[in-house]
Write a structure and sequence with these properties.
Blueprint lengths: L1 H41 L1
């Protein structure tokens, strides 16, 4: 149980440090997906 709690704390710290990078990657992925969708409508 203690190992799970320590892992959760480590994951929480990692998310706190890297949330902006995840947002950046998500934005790029969303833009590529939207571009591909619009590309299928046009062509």
């Amino acid at each position: 149980m203690e190992q799970i709690q320590q892992s959760y704390r480590g994951l929480s710290l990692l998310m706190d440090l890297n949330w902006d990078r995840l947002l950046y990657v998500g934005t790029i992925a969303g833009a590529l997906g939207t571009g591909a969708f619009l590309g299928t409508l046009v062509g």
